Amino acid sequence: MNEKEFKKAIDHYRSLIDKEMANEKVIDGKFVGPKKLTKKDKIDLEDIIHPDRPFLSKDAPEDLDSLYVTTFRVGNLKKPEVLTKAGYGTDVIGGIEFGSNLVKTGLIESVDDIAPFLAKYKIGILDLFREEEVEDGKKLDIRVYECIDCAGMPNIGEPVCYFETGMLIGILSELTGKEVFAEELRCWTSGYSCCQFDVDIKETKKGLDG
Ligand SMILES: [Zn+2]
To answer: What global pTM score does this model have?
Structure first.
């Protein structure tokens, strides 16, 4: 994806998400976007085979993008159903290890490398929407559009991108040497057209108290 296309995607999704966030609700303490809510506990096969990725699919011939995205998602079904929710913790840890290894092996060398890497491997389109200094460090509002895990999935009332949450923690903590916390507050599976992460980079160094 070239720079012009990338910028076009960011502009498109920023205005779309603006509208969605203006029409969101808070249900049981969770943000739920305006897409129709489907009452189900889990995502099934029919849900994962229709990714919605107009920008990332542009340089893939025919429907190749939906094929490799589906292949990736089928990998998530390796967990037995009873473990689907209990497995979220391991997804976060796996993501942290993956993210940290991206930095250790030099595939990502700086914060500026993150978005090009994610676009190249078609994991998603990363938008550092806001960055602010707070008393104990930094707060980031990171959005990922056309996420390989959730783009096009139904609104089941809660986010599911635990691997990506971990990946952001792993990359940012390895790059900064600081303690990083991240939470996905909005997702395709909670009614939006993006994943939105609240990220805290704490001033205290990793492993130190206080
Ligand atoms: Zn998501």
So the answer is: 0.92
